[in-house]
Amino acid sequence: MHQFHKLIITAIEKQPNAVIWTLAIPPELKNEFIFLPGQHMTFRVMSQGEELRRSYSICSSSCKTDEVKVLIKAVKNGRFSEPAQTNFHVGDQVDVLSPSGHFSLQPENGRCYAAFAAGSGITPVMAMIYATLEQTEDAQFLLFYGNSNSTDILLHDEIAALKDRYQDRFSIHYFLSQQKVDMPFNHGRIDHGKVVFIKEHILDQIEVSDYFVCGPGEMIDSVCRSLDILGVPTRKIHNERFLSEGQEISLADKTIKEDVGITVTIDGANHHFGIKAGEQVTLLESAEMAGVSLPYSCKAGVCATCRCRLIEGDVEMINNYSLEDWELETGYILGCQSVVRSSKIHISFDE
Ligand code: FES
Question: 156-165 and 122-135 are packed helices; what angle lies between their axes, rounded to 10 degrees?
Fold first, then answer.
């Protein structure tokens, strides 16, 4: 489950400053690549002798089991995302981990879901929209999607096709921050004022089961705070940041205070190793030093690829931009952000 698999790129599609890769799932890997709408996949490439890992959200329908699509937005000087725009071709093989991530939706009949997305934050939301419309008979989806200009809108044709097909169950409101539009409501960023207006004028009579928020950190913080102020229960608000905005953990924070014995359970096997007092490592780094391969991608507390369960012992989690309260309460931690604070530790990636 935590191994990299080789998948073949079968199509590459241009999007504004981005590409969509279609990856074929061979029959023997179908079970490994069943995904929940909203999840992402971690890619691994070698660049100038260094291993790079990056996570990209799946933007296709989970009804299709023989292929997945990911959208890769070009980031300036991005060591993975820039080459991904031009250096990869149909027929190339790429190393990919099975889908993961807890920012997901399993839609149910009779429900209504709403999403606030900005820029490439639309990517995981797109898979949620497909699932809601294709896998239920009557669930509804409301999308509020912000971009700078109309030419920047990602997945525009896919959204339009769904709007045509599911007119009664899917509504979309675009917001453009740097382009004049007829309606003042559709001009500007998705911020507190917009959320208040939307809640009072559009969502007022609708019982929304869950809110999904994806985009730059500032937008996520603003929307989540606004929903909170407007009385939406925290358990109904889910967010995912798509950039690694986490800070480096300082060496002082990573300093281990006493000798530690560590057990890691992964893919049914137990691995034992130790770290000495005075070493300056996270749990993930200590496993890497011991030669135990664990899943990770951003190493910044954002993607949750390194999520595992603390079975025994104590850790201090320095940053957390991805785990929700219920996950923390049930013992989940991020390996890349956890520093051991007890003499014995047992973590599991199998729960
Ligand atoms: S590797 Fe991304 S949160 Fe730990």
Answer: 20
